[in-house]
Amino acid sequence: MKIIPLTALALVAATALALPAGAATEATVMVGGQQMFPSKDIIDNAVNSADHTTLVAAVQAAGLVDALKGKGPFTVFAPTNEAFAALPAGTVDTLLKPENKATLTKVLTYHVVAGDYTGAKLRSLIQKNHGSTTLKTLAGGELTIMMNGPDNIAVRDEKGGIADVTISDVHQSNGVIQVIDKVLMPGA
């Protein structure tokens, strides 16, 4: 049996046929069981994550979809469904009521920072500032970014709650998502 080598062109064609559209050119990260594509915006990716259905519902209820589809860049510290479920009983239901839209909007925009803050950039700022750095949120509050152990980035809110970044650097066309394990709460 004679083996016939594939030419470079045939190899590229075979690879392109075997991969889903966009997969050959985009490095993706898995979040909530789905690929997050850097060519899609924050909302278009988030709606596919099974781990972020509560966040997506909250963003829709607050009327923030168009804002997070905007040009950016934004860094979103995105709490998982488990993070929302860990809030005191009834908190999410109360926040999702139309009469609480202003409070919901404040909580959600407290998770968003203008700029593209990758894990490397956050680590650099933490080191430069001797152990922590603060970022101004779109809600007008501050988040303190620090290390939690040698490798993990953590975020402290104005009430002292700490969330760990569990999936870092989920690149989007209009910014980056840092998945976190707690809901961040703005100060009074």
From TrEMBL:
SUPFAM superfamilies noted in UniProt: FAS1 domain (SSF82153)
A GO CC term attached to the entry: extracellular space
Keyword Nucleotide-binding: no
Pfam families reported for this sequence: Fasciclin (PF02469)
Keyword Transferase on entry: no
Extent of the signal sequence: 1-23
Residue ranges occupied by any FAS1 domain in the UniProt entry: 39-184
PROSITE patterns hit by this protein: FAS1
Protein name (Swiss-Prot/TrEMBL): Fasciclin
